[in-house]
Amino acid sequence: MTASIIDGKAFAEKVRAGVAADVSALKAKHGVTPGLAVVIVGEDPASQVYVKNKVKQTADTGMNSFHFELPADTSEADLLARVEALNADPAVNGILVQLPLPKQIDEAKVIAAIDPAKDVDGFHVVNSGLLATGGRGLVPCTPLGCLLMLQDALGDLSGLKAVVVGRSNIVGKPMAQLLLDANCTVTIAHSRTKDLPGEVKAADIVVAAVGRPEMIKGDWIKPGATVIDVGINRIAAPEKGEGKTRLVGDVAYDEAATVAGRITPVPGGVGPMTIACLLRNTVTATCRQHRLDPKAI
Question: Could you say which residues bind NADP(+) here (predicted)?
């Protein structure tokens, strides 16, 4: 068996096209232009690249893009003041503070300061609570992207057994909740799970979000299962030359691809969907702030 590749890059283009159409409709019918504010503190290279992509894609869909670069020695008080100003700005419908933050700043305090209605990352405790209780909050972007790809690939997920490997607040826990809401039977596995290979082997859907390169082996995968690999890990690649590296996921891709029915690659799988869902969340937040139905704009 050779797995079908779930092309996250191509699917993300479709999501962005839908966002652009919604933005155009909001402008034409309601005179509203969604605005996304991105705040970055410091000069972490990976964060800089990620934020640059977010800013570009925001503008490409026709939204207003507000970009704030703050020095690495910015105080917690100054960042919180920036967040409060964005909360109060009616032109800003979504706020994203790029993580990680410098050591002098409490990330939890910053996330808590963001207006839940503008929390397009979906990290605020209010949005987490709404997700956990079946309410209408803003959903974290990476899990949302995973769910959309699964539904596109498999259709109705009802009754399928899903295993999420990883229990972070950003991916693992919200992913499990979304799968539960989609009527899957869900197991959250982690480093202390007994017989982790056996748990994975029983699953129709495997979502790997543990942050360990190629941890999940091909012989852990149930034949025909769908594998969503959230991991992005950089490892040495001596075959490319001295000091060279390459990106791999949390799944041993070459092994798993011979067993799985469908699988996401790394890169080019989940990653592109995260930004696409950030833009989608911004449209959703804009509609709710203007008391509009996102499905009827």
Answer: 166-168, 232
